Fold:
Amino acid sequence: MNIYDRISNMADEPGTYDEKMYRILYSDRYDTGKYRKQKLDEGMEVVNQVIFGWWKPRFLLNHNRKTAYEWMTSDQQLAIVDAEHIDWASMKGLPEEAIATLQCYSFQYPSFIRRFENGIAEVQWQLIPDGRYWRDDEGFGMTDDVELNIFGFIDQQANIISKFRYYTDKERSEHILDKVHKEAVKAIANNQ
Structure:
C-alpha cells in the first residue's frame, strides 16, 4: 500500500493531511531500504528515496510542527513548485535542454535541499548534469556538458520564499546565495 492510500485509510483519525503524512513518514519504515532520512537541522529532515539509482529528496519532515510535505513525486517532478516560483527572466540565454527540464518541473538530476538556518533552506535544482553523469561503468558515454544549477529558498513548511533563479559563476563567487538567504530570513520575519 502506498503512502497516499495509507493516508486515505486514516480519514477517521484526527489531524490534517500533512499531519497524517508525518505520522506515516516518521516511522522506521521510511528510513530503510529504498528510503533514507537525512537531518537538515532546526528540527527538519528530508526523506530521500532511491529512484533510478540516485537518492532523491521526496518528502520534507518538520518535527517541530509534526507535519510532512511532498517535495517531489515518484515521477521526479517537483510537487510544490509552480511557474510563479521561478524567476524566468534569469533563465534567458540558458540552453534549450535546461529550459525543457525547468518547464516540466523535473528534479531528475542530482538536486538537493540543504540544511536549515534561521528557518530557511537553500534548494539546489540541477537542470543539466555534468557530462560525467552519462558515463557508464567503463567510462563510455561521457558528454562535454557543463553542470547547470539554479537556486531557491524554502521555509520549514516547504513554501518557496525566494524564487528559483540562475546565478552566474561570478555572482556565486561573490556569495550572492548568502545575501539571498539573509533576504529570505528577513521576509519570513516580516510575515510573522
